């Protein structure tokens, strides 16, 4: 059985004209260009790049460290870490936050790569904000959120090193 929404989608698909695809794609490109212009009015080119092309967004299965934090703004940020011989080989993030939170999460995953766990523990919100080049002061809480999630992931990693059998029970 189809509900109204499904029926509407079926009708739209049946009436889809392949010849309209170039116009649809052009409209999407125009929207993306408009978004980029608006972001460039507020953020550095580095930040805009991390917003539009976030790095390391695929969760790591059976991570060696995982941290999740939620802000008072109802934004959450998750960080996964893959560690071998005390060196972070892979990292990933996910957020439901704003553009600045996406940029901070993305930059954090870049900053920790190839660092030891102890070196990564020294990464601060200031370092994340500085790496994004002039993150607006009003968005500093986003860097704090990323730094907090990273600290939780690193603490989890250290706990897993002490009790490695617990990794087997992760979801």
Task: Explain what you see.
This protein is 53% helix and 14% strand. The protein has helices at residues 4-14, 21-42, 45-52, 99-112, 117-121, 125-131, 140-162, and strands spanning 65-70, 76-84, 87-95. The protein has a three-stranded antiparallel β-sheet with strand order 1-2-3. Helix 6 packs across helix 7 (140-162). The protein starts with a helix and ends in a 9-residue tail after the last helix.
Structural class: alpha+beta
Residue-averaged pLDDT? 87
Helix content: 40-55%
Shape summary: globular
Please state the CA-atom Rg, rounded to the nearest Å.
20 Å
User: What is the number of strand segments?
Assistant: 3
Straight-line distance between termini: 34 Å
How would you characterize the largest beta sheet? 3 strands, antiparallel
Order the strands across the largest sheet as they lie in space: 1-2-3
Order of helices and strands: HHHEEEHHHH
Kindly estimate the percentage of residues that lie in beta strands according to DSSP. 5-15%
Low-pLDDT regions = none
Number of helices: 7
What structural keywords apply?
single chain; about 170 residues; alpha+beta; 3-stranded antiparallel β-sheet; 3 strands; about 55% helix
